Structure formats: C-alpha cells, structure tokens
Amino acid sequence: MIRSVVIGCGAYLPENIVTNADLEKTVDTSDEWIIQRTGIKQRHIAGEGETTADLGEKAARAALANAGVEIADIDLIILATSTPDNTFPATAVEIQHRLGMKHGAAFDMQAVCSGFVFALTTADLYIRGGQAHKVLVIGAETFSRILDWEDRTTCVLFGDGAGAVVLEAQEGVGLTADRGILSSHLRSDGSHKSKLFVDGGPSSTGTVGHLRMQGREVFKHAVGMITDVIVAAFDATGLNADTIDWFVPHQANKRIIDASARKLKIPPEKVVITVDQHGNTSAASIPLALAQAVADGRINQGDIILLEAMGGGFTWGSVLLRW
Ligand code: ACO
C-alpha cells in the first residue's frame, strides 16, 4: 500500500521577540501570571509588512532544502492558516507563485489551531488516492494581526511563525512498521463557536475582526477532546503511550499539554514543548515543534510520532506517523 512519508521539514520565526516583561508595559499582566497559567515566556511577532505568505515561503524553502527536493517535484501545496494575506486568493497560491511553481495546485485549509493536522490528513488522502506524489504542507500564521492588544485575556497567549513538511508517496506493507502516516482522526463541532471565534469576516461585518475567547470554557473541553482522538489513534493502530517515541501536541498551553499527557500516561520526557518560546502559533505550532525536535536530534527516522491539535470551531484531530 502507499504511505505518505515525511522526507523533510523546516520552520521560520520572525526576528522580533516579545517577552512577558514587554507585555507588562502595555497591559495589566505579569510574567508570573502568564508563566503559571500557560508556560509561555516569549513569542515571535511579525514585523511591519511581514505577512503570512512571507513566513510560509521561508518555512517552505527550508523544508524543501531539508528534503533535498526541487519545487518542480511538488504536485500540491496545502497551507493551513486562519490569517491569510487576503480574503482571496488563497495565500497558498501566492506561496506557490513565489516558489516558481506553475504546475499542480495550491489551496488554503482553515481549521484554526487544528489546521496542520487537517492539512496533513488531506495531503495523505491525495497521496494515497494517487492524485499527488509529493506534497508540501505548510502551517503559517500571523495571529498578532487578529489580536485585540488591549485584551490581556487573549493577547498574551499567541505568536507568529511558520513550519512546513514535505510528504512523499512510498510503498509500505500496511503494518505499523511502515514509515509514513499510520492513522488520522479529525473531528469538529460547531456548537462551540462562541467559545473561540473572530468577531469579523467578509460576509458578516466586512472587517477582519479580533479573536475572542472564553479561555476557561476552551480549557474545560480541551483535554477530553484531545484524549478522544488520541485514544482513537491508539485503537486504530494498536500503538500506545509506551510504544510511541514522541508526542508533539499543538502548543496552546503547557497546562493543557501536561494534563493530556498525564491522562494518556505519556511520560513528560516524550513530550516536545515549544509553547514557552513560541506561544500559541495556531496552525504553525506543530510543524514548528517538529522542525525543532528534528534539528536538535530528538526525532530520528523510524520514530513513532503522535500529533494532536484542538482549536476554534471547535475542531480537533490526531495524526500518528512513523518518521
Ligand atoms: N494577566 C493577568 N491576569 C489575567 C490575565 C493576564 N494576561 N488574563 C486573565 N487574567 C485574570 C482574569 O481577569 C481573572 O481575574 P478575576 O479572577 O479577577 O476575574 C483571573 O486572571 C483568572 O482568569 P481565568 O480566565 O479564570 O484564568 P485561567 O486559569 O482559566 O487561565 C487561560 C486563562 C490561560 C486563557 C486558560 O483558560 C487557557 O489556557 N484556556 C485555553 C486557551 C486555549 O488553549 N486556547 C486555544 C486556542 S487554540 C485556537 O484555535 C485559536
């Protein structure tokens, strides 16, 4: 059977770093409160004029170089983002153009913080359906542009950045010994819209809007939803907390990650954490964390990696793969 194997990854973070101490000067907050409630110490914020396409392009180039693949070999680009440069066209198409790709197709995918897991699953289906051989999957966000910088309950939580992976069709035998994506499970439930949304949009207000969140409500649902899709991944593959090598969760909040790992009996030394350095970069957080753990030598070929995300919608999902 065909498997979608990650053959390279890359990331990009804007140069400008905003620490908790910097935020203390603009809103009524403290380094101590932010670290205790979220684990976040700093976040990167895009410079003036620096857009999602800029970040996504740099991450994409890094992933292509890491994979040793030319853009001519890519059949499809999927960009997970909730902060596109324009209402249309898709930012993926702008990145496709900048990379010099004239063939194939590119489109955006919108599942907020779960976007990368949704995009990876979609890419896997294109590859296993024989519609694409090599797919570039990018998660890129400039969440700083949709934050209300006067609202201390949200503005301290998010950051900007981008990460990308290249997937390639390879032959497998259908067992978990295969490299590539072994299972994926996606879910959504629109009844939770009011708990986490942006209060603007082209067809409602004609404005971009700002992120609004009932943080405690999101927190209440997060651990249950995360464990739901991870248990589904374990049931589908026969793998478990002991047999995975790395848990790379969406980086929203250290307390949510710790509580999920505890419930699933995944030991802390198997959990990749970047939320302290990046904040919540939405669809970019998982590929950013993957790129970091590959660069520092933790993730190696053959490792079993568990990805998970939960975000606005609500949307949530898991992907289990062998690197
Ligand atoms: N600094 C100081 N005090 C603050 C801040 C801040 N930045 N923000 C809120 N507070 C205050 C509140 O006003 C409140 O004060 P009060 O008791 O006087 O009313 C107090 O701190 C406690 O507020 P809570 O909201 O109850 O704090 P909580 O412990 O729930 O932590 C947090 C808030 C961090 C937002 C938490 O609820 C959380 O992480 N929720 C999940 C968020 C999340 O994961 N979102 C993912 C979104 S992904 C996506 O799709 C975009």
Q: Overview of this structure, please?
A:
There is one protein chain. The protein has 323 residues and is α/β, with parallel strands linked by helices. It has two domains: 2-171, 3-Layer(aba) Sandwich (Peroxisomal Thiolase, Chain A, domain 1), CATH 3.40.47; 180-322, Peroxisomal Thiolase, Chain A, domain 1. Helix content is 32%, strand content 26%. The chain has ten helices and 13 strands. A five-stranded mixed β-sheet has the order 1-7-6-4-5, with helices on both faces. The structure holds acetyl coenzyme *A. Residues 29, 33-34, 37-38, 112-113, 152-153, 156, 196, 215-216, 218-219, 222, 252-253, 256, 280, 282, 311-312 line the site of acetyl coenzyme *A.
Summarize the structure.
With 323 residues, this protein is α/β, with parallel strands linked by helices. It has 2 domains: 170 residues, 3-Layer(aba) Sandwich (Peroxisomal Thiolase, Chain A, domain 1), CATH 3.40.47.10; 143 residues, Thiolase/Chalcone synthase (Peroxisomal Thiolase, Chain A, domain 1, 3-Layer(aba) Sandwich), CATH 3.40.47.10. It is built from 10 helices and 13 strands.
